[in-house]
Task: structure prediction
Amino acid sequence: MRERFLTGYNDFVLPFVVGMLFVLTYCLVGLIRIIAQLPASDRKRFFLSLVTPKTMVKNVKDIFLKCLIHVDLWKRNKLLGYMHSSIAFGWFMLIVVGHIEVFLYTSHLGAKALYYPIFFRYFVAETESTMKGALIFFLMDFFLLVVLSGIVLAIIKRVRSRFFGMRRTTNPSFLDLIGLYSLWSIFPLRLLAESFTADISGGSFLTKSLNYVFTEFLSNHANMLPAWWAYSCALGIFFCVLPFTRYMHIPAEILLIPLRNAGIRIVNARKGFARAQVYSCPSCGLCIDACPMGVMKGNIRDTTVYLNRQIRRKNEPRIEEISDKCLLCGKCTAVCPVGVEGDKLRIAQRSTRRYNFGPDYSNIDTKLQSERCNKFVKKINNNVSRTDNERVLYFAGCMTALTPVIRKTTESVLTKAGVDYEMMDRDGGICCGRPMFMAGRFAQADELVAKNTEIIMNSGADVLLLSCPICYKIFRERYTLPGIEIIHHTEYFERLISDGRLKMRKSSTKYVFHDPCELGRGCGVYEQPRNVIAAAGEVVEAARNRKESICCGGSLGSLTLGFDKRRAMTENALSNLVAASPDRIVTACPLCLDTFARYSDRPVEDIAQVVDRASGYGKIS
Amino acid sequence: MDFGFKISPSSAINLDNVDLTKFEELHRMEPDVYKCMACGSCSATCPASPFSGMSMRKVITALQRGKEKEAVAMLRNCMLCGKCSMVCPRGINTRHLILSIFRIYREDGK
Result:
């Protein structure tokens, strides 16, 4: 290749160079700010993770698979995956191959290195020796075609998102639209500009053929500069608006992935990791279809994608409204392709509320509570009495008090299996603290945690059995109970059955299992309840289940949504459950049971009821 | 025009000397507070009541009668479990009502 111009410069490179320098400066400042906002211990942990070989490999792998290939989108919908990876990976390869080209064919770049890889075709001419570069020419045209195919799909998606498996998409903001249109125009303009120079600086199947076909127009070199100007302007506009649009997710996600791999969590509602998450939101709108509140149109604007947008705009009244309304079912987090934690982000927003006074539980006497559930402790010397099997302490929780059948049947099952157990809250107990935690009042939640911890540690039990997933989640995450196994009743029943302590008789009843949010997405328990039900009858699956199960609508997560406004959600969740026409709906959460039972057309039961009925026939061996 | 009668302003004398400014503010934030019919379902289900005598029904009445101190003392035991809003036959979101009280009233009940 030889240079066409002695100076190696033309004014048309300016829009691109300005845009590029602006976006680089903006990202660098943003990066430093986010890292500076992290708590000191998190910052240290982040830097350490950057030099740990294991996380280094994971970072590179995750960035490649998530940012460029978009594997999560491929799993969701092939067309959606192809659209995103063709644009991201195709553009990335254009940049990489462009740099290789410049590296191979030019020397003494200097300041030209800024724009040469982008406008290479304009500044150099083809020579005899260039045939060796035919592969590179081909690659450039090939990846340009890949990107163009992605852009065509993106345009189709704007009009018909259903083809891509999305019922609703995000309503773009004004700047998003500018970014979108400039992004769409970059690649057709690049094709046009390179077609002009294809007879001078070479090209491959795309640019060269175009040059031959439209010889009249494209060989007229007077038309050449406007095309290169337009290409550079499109790039310049895109880069200049990028920090204020959803395309900020491109650089932000590259930071978010190493932060997440370093094990950093949201501490401040707006700064540090939370900020990285907010900026990583690509406004794809997958959370809109996922949100259980979406069945009522008025709630669509309260999904995670709009929360992120309002946080970026610092629109405080809307942030408060959106974060207080959410049911915290966590489905948006489960489907998010970049890993924005919609539920945790909202709890963090709630924790910034100012209250004039707060609860205070110093008047609760844990001694009295402990005395009610200390049958495992010997009166004489306070030693724990020895038992053949494990000593189980059963904490039913507040919600179970509203659905006493769960407590009754669980106790019945425990008796049948010969389990040595003790009720922790037969006459009412202290709340686990999860509802308080969900309201963002961490200090008060920790007070409740401390009270319960004291009672449990004094009980002499070695297994803590819970029948409420809401309790289960906080017990697993925030309680430290050395030597005590925390277990949900679905898991415990499975163990009793597989150990042969509980004899089950199978019937032909068809059961569908509803995954409670806090048990499934919250604690990752999916298989055990299904195994238990399979021992009692036939298990059929709901249309959407496991990670994508739909919240019953009864969640305590929402602060502002009254129970009278949740009927449509419950009915939607029910219609999803009865897709395979089961005889009975089974759940493992007192709240789901109570909510579903209000509107269901068929019996709704807790898993304990199923086990109790099925195990009624055989006696303990 | 003369109809032969006039509408005169009410001559009832309000002897209530309770300062309800805060309650009016609460009512603006939570219009549902007037819906309460004092059935006591909330108090019956409250897990905090065995420890402290906390009762949402009493709290609402106390606030309406200007006994903020008593109401605040009771509310300090609330664990925010939300069972009261689940059982309320009038559909009052008591959980949010409690949070609003935390915001409007002060610790000393003033």
